[in-house]
Design goal:
CATH class: Alpha Beta
CATH superfamily: Glycosidases
Distance between the termini: 9 Å
Number of strands: 17
CATH topology: TIM Barrel
Oligomer: single chain
Largest sheet: 8 strands, parallel, barrel
Bound molecules: 6-O-phosphono-beta-D-galactopyranose
Number of domains: 1
Radius of gyration: 21 Å
Shape: globular
Strand order of the largest sheet: 1-2-3-4-5-7-12-15
CATH architecture: Alpha-Beta Barrel
Length: 466
Amino acid sequence: MKFPKDFFFGAASASYQVEGAWNEDGKGVTNWDVFSKIPGKTFEGTNGDVAIDHYHRYKEDIKLMAEMGLDSYRFSISWARIIPDGRGEVNEKGIEFYNNLIDECLKYGIVPFATLYHWDMPQILEEEGGWLNKNTIDAFVKYAKVCFEAFGDRIKHWITFNETIVFCGHGYLEGSHPPGIKNDPKKYFMATHNVVTAHARSVETYKKLRQFGEIGITHVFSPAFPVDNKEENVFAAYHANQYEIAWYYDPVLKGTYPEYVVKQLKEQGIVPDWTDEELAVIKSAAPKNDFIGLNYYQPRRVIKNNDVGESSKQTRDGAPGSASFDGVYRTVTMPDKNYTKWGWEIAPDAFLEGVRLLKSDYGDIKLYVTENGLGDADPIIEGEDVDVARIKFIETHLKAIKKAISEGINLKGYYAWSAIDLLSWLNGYKKQYGFIYVDQKDNLKRKKKLSFYWYKKIIEERGENI
Ligand code: BGP
């Protein structure tokens, strides 16, 4: 079987992780420009000031993507390039940059898939309370409208937010992303609700413009599975999925928050401060949401947390081994599973199981895998990046996607993370994901990896031999 004709074989990136040019052409300072420079916050103090200089080298990069045969490129727009102070004047130079980037994609027939918010927020807004301040919702909707009006003639696929659970969880529970607040569930839930509201209002705004494209949101897809059939562990997995899947997917797809979570938040006095008007727009926008983007890296294997009193104990970024913020469950590693060098489980089968569950909960909603990939310190042999492990990783995940499609799951595209080696938020440049190698020691020179040639062939054959 070949993948369907309208299935996108793509690859992704995010503005802060690739662009650099942090203070050029009128761009405003972002929360990440500031946060990454606080000593100890990022691996070896890396930051996105230069990143991989995609801002100046986008033509070269897109040419390589075209050579690889990408159907589509997912990138994000930096809010602070478009509206430097978050809510005021539009920066024409910022519009010009993304116009050029989009036109360069279209020149090669690459479909641009844009994310409006991949975590870099104008610093001024962050200082005014960021996602805790309801004015940020108005500012975001204005920014979204500016983008729809400027680029909507050519961009027909929009993602509002990337991984709300990550930037809110790291921002207000773990303190490892801006604004660096630790263990504050009240703020965490408040921020998530404001983001959901901003998403809903942006969907309404987009549909009113009648540009006849599609709009959705990208969520982390990390379904929880109990380690065994013990009732307490089955319950732990249920609880995890209510808080980390339903809390994010329900308002976008069903228009309401999950009762199970709302009830518990009420009991703890940490229910977000929401208005009837906000709840109404969340409800009215839900049927207009066109798709969900899934960022799938790994599932979670969970058990009941017996370490009473311990919560949010952090392990390495993203690796299993920590207790949930409420101390109810914990994620664990299992001896019979495979893990990456950074301790993330490799489990294409869990993806398949997860999307089957998603279908049973949410019906036939259109899905894209908007991120999936292997973070590795690639082997370099005689100057060549021979990333065999990445090929294997992507191949097995594409196989799972193919199976899902054959079962009638509405999956319309796959975006490998990432198109090109880039800056990892907390792991610097040593954790690589790309098809294209970027030589940090030689003027950021681009070089094709083994996976580049492999993915090119997969796309040419439309995945027939997977
Ligand atoms: C996702 C983010 C990406 C990217 C990826 C890999 O959560 O959306 O921006 O960073 O994870 O993460 P890491 O670089 O930490 O391995």
